[in-house]
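DM from R.C. (forwarded with permission)

"hey, sorry to bug you on a friday — could you get me a structure for this? deadline for the figure draft is monday and I only need the backbone to look sensible"
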Amino acid sequence: MNQPSPFSSGRTGGPTRGDLTGIMQKVAHGDKQAFSALYDALAPMVFGIVVKVVRDRAQAEEVAQEVMIDLWRQAARYRPEAGSVTTWAATIAHRRAVDRVRSAQAATDREHAQAAREHTPAFDEVAEQVETRLESEQVRRCVRGLTELQRQAVTLAYYRGLTYREVAEALRTPLPTIKTRMRDGLIRLRDCMGVTT
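My reply, with the result:
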């Protein structure tokens, strides 16, 4: 017999946008009852978003639980002027779900690469190491040629794996500015590396 999901809800109506804003403000102050109400209101929607991306019910429940914990921990960061609580929760849910899929794909890719290496005949590893080292030095030289702002944005996005929005938050800079910095920086890197499109 299937156990009911903690994310299913029989409720037909829920709190209004204004209600949720008030509830979120209470959650930001550590109100556990308010979080319980927030959970009841948002968990089914969060699960629905996550399961569409992850496509595995057990993993989706796990990710949805992580999202709800994020909402509890980050409640003080919510700003009503930036959008509704529902939109904010949906954004976090989608980001978490995509991260889970990417992580699973990366693990699968690593396993396939490892299996391929185990079945590939050895070749001149010294030549490969020299080529890799030369490419690394060229990349470092090219990155040093970027402006400080471009270098920060590119480093956060490509070496730490942050999204453009997370880079914007980390650098306390508007998202359009970050996108422009990234585009200009990548063009400069491409030119420096001699990559042709």
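R.C.: lifesaver. The mean pLDDT is 81.
me: no worries. Residues 24 and 159 are 34 Å apart (CA to CA).
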